[in-house]
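Module 6 notes. Inverse folding takes a fixed backbone as the condition and produces residue identities as the prediction. Think of it as a translation problem where the source language is geometry and the target language is the twenty amino acids. Below is one complete input and output pair. Work through it position by position during the lab.
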């Protein structure tokens, strides 16, 4: 199906819906949040009553965004929606365990940019772009949605967080053209970058210091990793959102090809992988039922942290040495 036909089908379903739920993925990042908030504004422009759902809530650094205060982490029992839209979720399971979008809605739309998307919806708009926000921007242009200042703030937040503030190689000409259009809408870039990159909590600094002070390296210094335990989280009073950026700092070490953050949780380990050049960490994550992008991926692995660390390092070292 061409994008034109796809967009027409999406438009038809937006028009006929009376109510909708917009869902982000678990451990939400700027792209899924910014895209969902923008989609909620688009739906409201169609007169659709909209619920914005995030199982894990949203990190405090994104609370400044328009409609952020309307995000909920639960829905009423037996509520039913005409339409559900998942943003930036490569699989329906990424929305979380508390709700099943198939059960709570009559029709499901999936908008995403992940290459490993499982095309789980009735309509799947999945396109290789810098971010889900860039996909959504293309849809907005087709629908002739006038991007206002509030939408621009959400889309720009999504754009810069998934492109590393335009540093990653997924940044394209289309990415910069989109950014320019958002600036024309009256966007305050300083406010956004200050909130996201220049505002840190004391626990986030303490946990980063602990994590980076005990990082380890492979013999050739091409692989670097660190482990964050439950005890470290408790001692620093850190939350999950306070870990944002730690694995990227580890990747920045000279000579590192793959950086890994292991976060211990009850009975499982959350894995974050970053690659600097040629190693496709999405392939590695898929070995552990995870996924993502070539240079940024993750997984949740059952087991204790030492066993999981050894298993993951074995696979990573194989790929680095190929």
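Target side of the pair, the amino acids:
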């Amino acid at each position: 199906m061409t994008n034109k036909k796809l967009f027409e089908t999406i438009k038809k379903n937006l028009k006929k819906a009376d109510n909708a739920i917009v869902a982000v993925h678990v451990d939400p990042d700027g792209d899924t949040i910014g895209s969902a908030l923008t989609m909620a504004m688009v739906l409201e422009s169609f007169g659709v009553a909209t619920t914005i759902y995030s199982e894990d809530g949203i990190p405090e650094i994104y609370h400044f965004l328009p409609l952020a205060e309307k995000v909920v982490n639960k829905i009423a029992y037996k509520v039913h929606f005409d339409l559900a839209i998942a943003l930036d979720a490569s699989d329906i399971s990424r929305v979380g365990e508390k709700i099943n979008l198939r059960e709570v809605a009559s029709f499901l739309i999936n908008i995403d940019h992940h290459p490993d998307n499982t095309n789980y919806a009735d309509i799947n708009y999945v396109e290789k772009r810098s971010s889900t926000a860039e996909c959504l921007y293309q849809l907005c242009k087709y629908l002739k949605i006038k991007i206002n200042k509030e939408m621009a703030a959400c889309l720009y937040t999504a754009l810069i967080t998934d492109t590393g503030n335009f540093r990653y190689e997924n940044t394209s000409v289309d990415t910069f053209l989109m950014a320019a259009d958002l600036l024309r809408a009256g966007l305050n870039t300083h406010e956004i970058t200050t909130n996201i990159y220049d505002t840190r909590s004391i626990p986030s600094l303490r946990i980063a210091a602990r994590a980076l002070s005990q990082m380890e390296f492979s013999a050739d210094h091409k692989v670097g990793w660190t482990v964050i335990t439950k005890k470290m989280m408790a001692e620093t009073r850190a939350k999950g959102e306070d870990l944002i950026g730690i694995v990227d700092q580890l990747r920045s070490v000279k000579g590192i090809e793959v950086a890994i953050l292991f976060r211990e949780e009850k009975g499982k380990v959350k894995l974050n992988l970053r690659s600097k050049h040629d190693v496709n960490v999405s392939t590695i994550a898929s070995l552990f039922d995870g996924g993502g992008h070539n240079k940024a991926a993750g997984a949740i692995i059952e087991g204790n942290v030492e066993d999981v660390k050894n298993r993951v390092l074995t696979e990573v070292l194989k790929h680095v040495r190929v």
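Reference fact for the lab report: The chain has two domains: 3-197, 202-321.
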